[in-house]
């Protein structure tokens, strides 16, 4: 008896399933088409994005290679490279866009256009979509080019956050703050800062070497 009831129950379930399939077959087909269209669109977008990334990577590597190979740049070559980085800054995917802005800013600074460079550095520093490491680097580069004539209070305010123990640019920011003390005639504060940097084993070798060299001028 149990087997008979099970068979009847299965047949009823089969009948219900068939009825539901007939009733909603159009909707099911439509849903399947939507899913397939979504998958196709996603794959198409990934393909397009990969092409964009590859094109940006090629253009960026080409521009950087040209920059690295050049012992010096005349005004025409500098303008051409600047235009290449500007184009990448405007249309490349995030990452290449940020790096291109940093390179474009450096070219402007080297050409004497500090205002134009500062604009680009500030754009990177305030770009919430950019990598925090690159945002801090933009602030550091801005400070390095402003350290001789920029407003001391503003320089200090922007450099201080970079001196946190976990910041990758901590030692370089401390070096700039020490130079700022020296510029303002605060010899003892500068001497103390350079002394710490010269003994900081976590600081890059270049920073320690420069600190030691500057300390020698204080007679230490």
Describe the structure.
- The chain is mainly alpha-helical and 220 residues long.
- The model is unreliable at 1-12 (pLDDT under 50).
- The chain is 79% helix and 0% strand.
- The protein is globular, with a radius of gyration of 31 Å.
- The protein has helices spanning 2-69, 75-91, 96-110, 114-125, 132-146, 152-159, 170-183, 187-198, 205-217.
- The chain has 2 domains: 33-146, no CATH class; 149-220.
Write the layout of secondary structure elements.
Elements: H1 2-69, H2 75-91, H3 96-110, H4 114-125, H5 132-146, H6 152-159, H7 170-183, H8 187-198, H9 205-217
Helix pairs in contact: 1-2, 2-3, 3-4, 3-5, 4-5, 6-7, 7-8, 8-9
Q: Percent of residues in helical segments?
A: over 70%
- Give the overall form: globular
| Mean pLDDT across every amino acid position | 74
N-to-C span: 104 Å
DSSP helical segment count: 9
Tally of structural domains: 2
**How much β-strand is present in the residues?**
under 5%
- The total of beta strands comes to 0
Q: Pick out the low-confidence regions.
A: 1-12
Oligomer class: single chain
In sequence order, what are the helices and strands, one letter per element? HHHHHHHHH
Structural class: mainly alpha
Task: Profile the largest sheet.
Answer: none
Rg to the nearest angstrom? 31 Å
């Amino acid at each position: 008896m149990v087997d008979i009831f099970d068979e009847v129950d299965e047949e009823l379930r089969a009948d219900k399933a068939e009825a539901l399939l007939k009733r909603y077959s159009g909707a099911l087909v439509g849903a399947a088409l939507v899913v397939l269209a979504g998958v196709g669109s996603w794959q198409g977008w990934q393909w397009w994005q990969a092409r964009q990334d590859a094109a940006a990577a090629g253009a960026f590597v080409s521009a950087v290679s040209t920059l690295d190979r050049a012992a010096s740049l005349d005004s025409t070559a500098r303008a051409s490279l600047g235009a290449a980085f500007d184009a990448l800054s405007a249309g490349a995917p995030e990452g290449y866009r940020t790096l291109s802005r940093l390179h474009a800013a450096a070219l402007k600074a080297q050409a004497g256009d500090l205002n134009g460079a500062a604009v680009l550095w500030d754009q990177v520093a305030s770009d919430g979509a950019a990598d925090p490491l690159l945002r801090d680097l933009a602030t550091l580069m801005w400070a390095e080019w402003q350290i001789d004539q920029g407003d001391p209070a503003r320089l200090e305010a922007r450099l201080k956050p970079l001196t946190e123990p976990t910041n990758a640019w901590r030692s370089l920011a401390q070096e700039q703050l020490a130079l700022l003390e020296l510029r303002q005639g605060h010899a003892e504060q500068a001497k103390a800062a350079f002394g710490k940097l010269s003994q900081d084993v976590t600081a890059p070798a270049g920073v320690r070497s420069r600190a030691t060299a500057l300390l020698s001028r204080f007679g230490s």
